[in-house]
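#struct-pred
JK: can someone run the complex with cobalt (II) ion? inputs below
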Amino acid sequence: MDDTRGRMTKDGIRIYEQSDFAGMHKAGHLAAQLLDEVIPLVKPGVTTGEIDSYITDRVVAEGATSATIGYKGYKHASCISVNHVVCHGIPGDKRLKSGDIVNIDITVIVDGWFGDTSRMYVAGKPGRKAERLIQVTHDSLMKGIEAVRPGNTFGDIGHAIQVYVESQRMSVVRDFCGHGLGRVFHAPPNVLHYGRAGTGPVLEEGMIFTIEPMVNLGRPETKVLNDGWTAVTRDKTLSAQFEHSIGVTADGCEIFTLSPAGRFHPTYPV
Ligand code: MF3
Ligand code: CO
Ligand code: CO
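RT: done, C-alpha cells with the ligand placed:
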C-alpha cells in the first residue's frame, strides 16, 4: 500500500498533491457510476443480494477492485441498508417491498485510489415521512460540504450538519463517522457529523475525506446485530444516509463522487 505521498499534519491527516486528485476523480467516478447503474434494479421483489451481485460483476468488468470484499472479513461489494438499518447492511435474500428506503454504499479501488459513496433509493413509492428523511439527509450532507474550505475546521462541518438536522426535528447518528481516505480506505481524521463550530483540526488544501451523515427519524442510538455488521436504530425508526468523497481545494472542495447521470438525489422519475 503506497501511502507515503505528500506530507502529514500534526493531527496525522495526509495532505495530497493537486495531481493526486485526478486519481480520486477516476475512482470516485466509477463508484458513482455504479450507483447510477443500479437505479433500475431497486424495486419491489428484488433481493439485496441480486443488487450486490450486479455490483460485484461490474467492478470486475471495469478492471477495478472492491474495497469491501475481504475488509475485516466482510464478503460483499456493497453495503445495502434497508429502512431502520443505519449502515453496513449485508446483502442477502431479503426481498425489497414497496415503500422500502434503501441505502447502497460502494467503495472501489482504481489504480490504488479509493472512491467511497452512498445514496438513498426507494422501492416503489416512499411514505411522506420517509421522503422527508431522505431530503433532509441529502441536504445535511450538502450543508456539510458547503462548510469545507481551508481555514474552517472539521467541527464546522459537523456543526453545519447537526444544526440543520435538528432544526428539522430529526437526529444525527453519533456511532459512525466519515473518514480520511485516498490510497487507504479509512485514515485520520474521524469526520464527525455533529459538533461545535471552530473545534477540531483545521481544514487544509489537499486533505481528502468522506462526509457521510446518517440521520434518524427517531433517536440517534444504534446497535450492531449479532452478524457483527448490521447497525440498526435502537428505537426501530427509519434511518437514511448519503456519502461523498471530497478533496479540499484552495477555495472550497471538489466532490469526487458526483453522479455522472445527475441522479445522486432520488427525486428523479424512475
Ligand atoms: N463504505 C463504508 C464507509 O463509508 C464502509 C463499509 S465497510 C464494510 O466507510 F466492510 F462494511 F463494507
Ligand atoms: Co465512507
Ligand atoms: Co461508504
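RT: quick notes.
The pocket of cobalt (II) ion (ligand 3) is lined by residues 105, 107, 116, 118, 212, 243 (CB under 6 Å).
The first strand starts at residue 7 and ends at 8.
JK: thanks, will look after standup
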